[in-house]
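Input (structure):
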């Protein structure tokens, strides 16, 4: 794992030198279905790069990916920074300003997804692309654990989930991320997008597929895969 994160840091440094920007962080493998799917027992994390973020309704060419899979997840935007270690759930909740419906395309440079946890860590937590919906203020009466999701592929429901699938509470994911990053001297910053992990097992993305994730309180977010490059 230490080697995986060391490789990730080197890759991030190269991308930043080429003009990329880190606009947030993603936690992966936060739900039991995803951990079972890849045979692991703990989450991982990676940066979210500016060039990989797209708006609701985006049409993304599937040929730019290797072996893409789609996930629906809850996304937070921070209104203040967090620096671990020692960040609590209460501090994480206070730092969150907005919540968004999100779709993530995960991708792997390792053939047939034959990966271990260190492999996906080195691969920027299997980053592909990210699509986000309209932001909604995270008010006191909203419990992220109870935000439900219906996930459809080409008009057919293929999965359902709720926020509690992500480490029991998506806010816990934010605190976990802040503390993990803090061990490497990295802080979460105001404005960062935090992807809290899939609420279900990932679904393969094929050319022409349209995915829609409908969330309680957050509305929907959609993306379509295209043959065109």
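Output (sequence):
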């Amino acid at each position: 794992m230490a080697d995986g994160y060391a490789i990730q840091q080197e890759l991030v440094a190269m991308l930043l030198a080429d003009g990329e920007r880190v606009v947030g962080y993603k936690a992966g493998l936060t739900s039991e279905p995803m951990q079972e799917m890849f045979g692991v027992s703990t989450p991982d994390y990676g940066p979210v790069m500016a060039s990989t973020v797209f708006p609701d309704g985006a049409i993304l060419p599937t040929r730019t990916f290797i072996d893409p899979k789609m996930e629906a997840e809850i996304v937070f935007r921070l209104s203040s920074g967090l620096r671990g270690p020692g960040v609590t759930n209460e501090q994480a909740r206070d730092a969150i300003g907005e919540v968004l419906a999100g779709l993530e395309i995960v991708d792997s440079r390792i053939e047939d997804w034959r990966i271990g946890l260190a492999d996906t860590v080195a691969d920027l937590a299997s980053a592909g692309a990210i699509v986000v919906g309209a932001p909604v203020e995270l008010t006191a009466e909203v419990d992220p654990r109870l935000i439900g999701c219906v996930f459809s592929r080409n008009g057919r429901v293929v999965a359902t989930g709720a926020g509690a699938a992500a480490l029991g509470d998506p806010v816990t994911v934010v605190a976990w991320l802040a503390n993990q990053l803090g061990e490497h001297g990295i802080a979460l910053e105001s404005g960062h997008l935090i992807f809290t992990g899939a609420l279900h097992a990932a679904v393969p993305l094929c050319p022409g597929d349209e995915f829609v994730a409908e969330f309680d309180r957050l509305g929907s977010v959609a993306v379509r895969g295209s043959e065109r490059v």
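Notes: Residues 2-226 form a domain with the Fumarylacetoacetate hydrolase; domain 2 fold (CATH 3.90.850.10). The first strand starts at residue 22 and ends at 28.
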